[in-house]
Task: structure prediction
Amino acid sequence: MLDQFSRTQLLLGPHGMDVLARARVAVFGIGGVGGHATEALVRTGIGAIDVIDDDTVALTNVNRQVIATLSAVGRPKVDVMAERIADINPHCGVRAHRCFYLPATAGQFDFREYDYVIDAVDTVTAKLRLIEEADRTGTPIISSMGAANKLDPTAFEVADIYETSICPLAKIIRKECRKRGVKACKVVYSREPERERFPDISGEECTRRSGIPGSTAFVPSVAGLIIASEVVKDLVARG
Result:
């Protein structure tokens, strides 16, 4: 019988689809990268997913985040994502956690429950904590490096953190992982140098604050889709 996953099964086969249906993935950060990764996994047939974020949808998210529409502005991202997941695959088990991954909340998550972890958070501290915890528990993780201030979606590569170059965020994570004794971590990173932003002429809060990056619909989304494809390939290969 045909279902929403029939075309995927032609490529992955019944066993591959069964592996995905039995897998649970945690996605930390439901923004431009994490939202697209989450949706791609759900559309591929993942059986259970945790979505973790404490942000609400903002007007300035509409240019790039898959869950961001004008009607969603002001709503918690994880709630909007959970509704979207249910509309794609009501059989997918969703756990929505409205929090950021911080030292105070880290104890809420047992990585041994997960078949894969996706790090799509923004802060270095949280990224390092996620990578360390995945390393400690032996849980596969893929981490998104910098996707902001870029315009070339073809410049992304998948590599171990110690094989990265150019990306400033990857340089920091690489150094800190070495300090912490993390021997390997799969990442998606871009070899495109960061572009300078145009001077702020809007006077709006999103650009008035220092350090707020520019972003587009076609760069973080590609990073998210690459991440989802790596998760699917690894899960099916292991299964």
Notes: Residues 63 and 217 are 6 Å apart (CA to CA). The radius of gyration is 17 Å. The longest helix spans residues 220-238.
